[in-house]
TrEMBL record:
Residues 6-120 form the Response regulatory domain. The modification 4-aspartylphosphate is found at residue 56. It comes from Brevibacillus brevis (Bacillus brevis). The keyword Phosphoprotein applies. This is Response regulator.
């Protein structure tokens, strides 16, 4: 049995969200909440105090980078960003906000699960 980690998935695309949740739950992760924008990510993080938020960058209301800045300044929750962009400037901005990593969409299970494992394993150090 996997150690119990609370994970929140945030993406404005419901199909992407559903796929991510399914991949995580199939291997035993506890996805405690889902949301569709950065504002919801901030609120859900305050409510659930997850170990990890997996979040899209480009979303309505509040983007993932702005939400990451708030989450990282108010909690020790790790953030793994999902993006359709792999430009160096976006990566630099994401690092400055305190993200633990990022994955380029579309995200496949063989990329997602190792990335999640790395982030959560770093919490044990």
């Amino acid at each position: 049995m996997r150690q119990s980690y609370r994970i929140i998935v945030i993406d404005d695309d419901p199909i992407t969200r559903m796929d991510l949740v399914e991949m995580l739950q199939e291997v035993g992760y506890d996805v405690v909440a889902e949301g569709k924008n950065g504002e919801e990510a901030v609120r859900l993080t305050q409510t659930w105090r997850p170990h990890l938020v997996i979040m899209d960058v480009k979303m309505p209301v509040m983007d993932g980078l702005a939400a990451t800045g708030i989450i990282r300044s108010t909690s020790d929750t790790d953030v793994l960003l999902l993006t359709a962009y792999s430009q160096k400037d976006m990566v630099a901005r994401a690092k400055a906000k305190g993200v633990c990593g990022y994955l380029v969409k579309p995200v496949m299970e063989e990329e997602l699960l190792p990335a999640v494992e790395r982030v959560l394993a770093s919490r044990l150090r």
